[in-house]
């Protein structure tokens, strides 16, 4: 069975085509700048030359058509016809309280995803565009939705409630939901496997640090707390998102600067974080470059990012009354050895002993970066959200077929 996995962003669409017989990737790629003047499709077919096409792609429907065209292209394609795609799996960031697990797309699921637009304005509308575009271009092919929030539905009430009037929860479901659950779930399981210890016995802190970033306390294999909240804005400082701040800042700034709700949302989600403090970039590579050159704004951005991440790790060790393992994953977590070094060398009170040489090794495999004797084991585990989505899609589609 071939499964197409789609991760739709507001102006991008990432895809991977899997052959589930051996879970091999037939092709993967990315459409960027959807809706802008020139869109870019970058396609990587396994065993063939990578291609980049620039064209006008105004919406997700056209993006999907382009992806299907290149997947079946004589020269760059990996399948003969669209009919060889047996199912589609979509990443959806927000499942609210509706979805505790992945689900088949039907009218009811679509209604619920739409009802959650308000709670994830940057993410859910994009996912819905991806779903509609797939339905239009692959009619009759089963579609499955896999939610970032599902893994965190195990959080206890004391972790997910905000200390604000309960009526807001009753009326609007204002509470903490978390995100990146697919990744936190995957890397915590992989860590237990690597350590060769039962997941049920472990207290693990997983740090998913990419463009968006979140930390999760995983106890006995379930999420007991996570740093993202009602939306993916709470918690860590991120590429362009502020993370935690005094909520009183919001009405204060809105009043002083005469900002609308949309404007203040955009300020906190798109014009804050590393980008705002460094004044140059949201990309950790540029921040590290700047900091290494002694540039003061990049240095401050790096220090704030590291400090805030370290504080979350400390607080989740307290939340679980201990920690057996810390896991770093996603673009920054897997690659930024300097950030890991700074975080870990300032957590020696937990009994962490960094293996400085192991921390510098670059690899696509799970690896230990603490000493083998370190009281808390520290691992780097490359995440693979797409594979989890493909597996869930496979399982659910097999369920309906058999
Ligand atoms: N070598 C590196 N050193 C530091 N940061 C890196 C490196 N490579 C990638 N990154 C960071 O990873 C981020 C992207 O992470 P990723 O998990 O791919 O994000 P997303 O899936 O949210 O788009 C980039 O913004 C970049 O800052
Ligand atoms: C939820 C979220 O922040 O996702 P991403 O990291 O893909 O932006
Ligand atoms: Mg990501």
TrEMBL record:
Pathway: Metabolic intermediate biosynthesis; acetyl-CoA biosynthesis; acetyl-CoA from acetate: step 1/2
GO biological process: acetate metabolic process; acetyl-CoA biosynthetic process
SUPFAM superfamilies to which the protein is assigned, alphabetical: Actin-like ATPase domain
Annotated site residues (Transition state stabilizer) in this chain: 180, 241
Active site: 148
Catalytic activity: acetate + ATP = acetyl phosphate + ADP
Binding site for Mg(2+): 7, 385
InterPro entries membership: Ac/propionate_kinase, Aliphatic_acid_kin_short-chain, Aliphatic_acid_kinase_CS, ATPase_NBD
Keyword field: ATP-binding, Cytoplasm, Kinase, Magnesium, Metal-binding, Nucleotide-binding, Transferase
Residues given in the record as ATP binding sites: 14, 208-212, 283-285, 331-335
GO molecular function, a single term: ATP binding
Alphabetized Pfam families for the sequence: Acetate_kinase
Subunit structure and binding partners: Homodimer.
Cited function: Catalyzes the formation of acetyl phosphate from acetate and ATP. Can also catalyze the reverse reaction.
Name this polypeptide is given: Acetate kinase
Species of provenance: Paenibacillus agri
